[in-house]
Amino acid sequence: MRWRPFDRKPFEDRRPFEERGPVKDREPAGVPRPPQRSRAERRNLMAAEAPILDEFRRLRARVPQLTGALAAGVDGLVLAHDTPGVEPDGLAALTAAALGVAVRVADATGRGDFRELLLRGADGYVATYAAGRTAVLTLLATDGVNVGRLHLEGRRAGARIGELVDAKAPPVRRSPAKSQTKEPAKEPPKAMPTRTKTARPARTTTADARTTTDS
Amino acid sequence: MANTETTLKECLASIEGATGAALVDYTSGMALGTLGGSKTFDLNVAAAGNTDVVRAKMRTMEHLGLKGGIEDILITLTDQYHLIRLITGRGGNGLFLYLVLDSKRANLAMARHQLKKIEEELEV
Known about the structure:
heterodimer; A: alpha+beta; five-stranded antiparallel β-sheet; 7 helices; 16% strand; B: alpha+beta; 3 helices
């Protein structure tokens, strides 16, 4: 192997811009960041799975047109799932990606913390609700669903799942100096207070997207 | 011709004993507009719930092979009347007006008559 000077990163693309390949080959855009939690944190969150599945059963009883439910961390980790016919890990990762965009849109337009996201396809709905500080609840429903009821039940379930998850999980470490002194129950600080023109790393929002559940 | 807002205002102003009114899309269960209600009586919750009432009735009629449509639905509580009036014509398909009445003050026949008049004027 050829010797390289130390100040040179081995994988840096040093070709002129025109000669580089298409963007998609260089950078896996839209692929959520890999899970950031430690094993212990993960185990704690998994302990919330059974009560969350109970919550899903209640939801299904109240909204019969529901075809699936998934609770995931804002970082794209599945906490609990009941999604027949849909791959939960993929859905959780996509939810995290959509959430990242949604949080940034809400932030850029001054709409505050994320609360919910509704998508309607020709054959049904996908709704994502904030569940506490670190999780979201994604519901799949048929086209005939009563959206008003879906919202009511989704918000309530999101709040309850948020309580379960927040009780089990330690607060997300964002700025260690601050978050360790503050109580987790306090009003969370603004996700991204000021916007700058400088390019930021692409996927920072996925893991620390802040959400609120109170409606 | 009246829009949603004026229609709801008229419901509360001209119908004796009315305490809340909502215009609801029963294809989605969401309210196009609400007026009145209170902290303990959330009209959006009522809209979603009564959407299920309307849908259930329609399904039942379909199972029974009945050809006619629903004109209105009356629900009598111990201290309230709830009136659901389905809207017909002029793009109002799939909507209903939901009216909450205090049964001590309301005149049911009059309320029903007035609601019909108001509904005929509504243009969405």
